[in-house]
Each structure stands twice: as structure tokens, then as C-alpha cells.
Specification:
With 121 residues, the chain is of the alpha+beta class. It contains one helix and eight strands, in the order H-E-E-E-E-E-E-E-E. It is elongated, with a radius of gyration of 22 Å.
């Protein structure tokens, strides 16, 4: 009987410590995004690894106005990758409803793919 009581006590302790550990990680961790993105013109654009040549960059169309790595509801100008002030551009010969470019470095631009209306809008 004592052995069974000890087993129950151990099981309860493991369960309680597991619950508190999972609760702790939820409250202190940042979001686990499926991919990096930008919200522009009420659409969600996935940041791709494809670079856009500087000579293919068109007009500046906006800037990142808000960055966060925490889940939430955001609006135009938000990114979970790029800091505030990062510039957004048209790509020559490409409709902005398909792709736009994000300035990722001095002469580095990354292509972003439009996934349609941002669900939080």
C-alpha cells in the first residue's frame, strides 16, 4: 500500500510541475511565427529569401512603423522581422498586389509575397 501511495504522490508532483512549467513558458516566450512578414496596404506579405536587384527597385511605398515579436493584432506598417523605419518599395514591372520589396541592407532588398487581406482587419 505504501508503495502505491508513493507512486500516486510522484505522479501528482510530476503533473503539477509540468503544468507550472508550461504555464511559465507561455507567459514569458515570444511568438512562434510561421514566417517573417510585413503588413502593408491591409495585406500580409511573407518575407522570402529571394533578393531583388537594386536596379529593379521602384518607388518607395511605405515604411515599417511598428515591430514586435509578440503575437497580437497589428495594422499597416507592422513587421515581425524588420525594425521601425525600414523602407518598403515597389518592384519594377511587378504588381504590388503580388510582391513588394523590403530594404534589408545598404543595397539589399528582399522580395515579399502577398498572401491577401490581413485576417485581423
Amino acid at each position: 500500500m505504501k508503495r502505491r501511495d508513493a507512486a500516486y504522490l510522484l505522479l501528482i508532483l510530476v503533473f503539477i510541475s509540468g503544468c507550472s512549467a508550461s504555464g511559465k513558458s507561455v507567459s514569458t516566450s515570444s511568438a512562434d511565427w510561421a514566417y517573417s512578414f510585413v503588413i502593408w496596404n491591409d495585406d500580409l506579405y511573407e518575407v522570402l529569401e529571394d533578393e531583388v536587384r537594386p536596379e529593379d527597385i521602384g518607388e518607395e511605398i511605405g515604411k515599417i512603423t511598428q515591430y514586435s515579436d509578440a503575437e497580437g493584432i497589428y495594422s499597416n506598417g507592422f513587421s515581425n522581422k524588420f525594425p521601425e523605419g525600414t523602407e518598403l518599395y515597389e518592384i519594377e514591372g511587378v504588381e504590388p498586389s503580388e510582391y513588394i520589396a523590403v530594404k534589408a541592407g545598404e543595397q539589399q532588398y528582399l522580395k515579399t509575397k502577398d498572401h491577401g487581406a490581413y485576417a485581423a482587419n
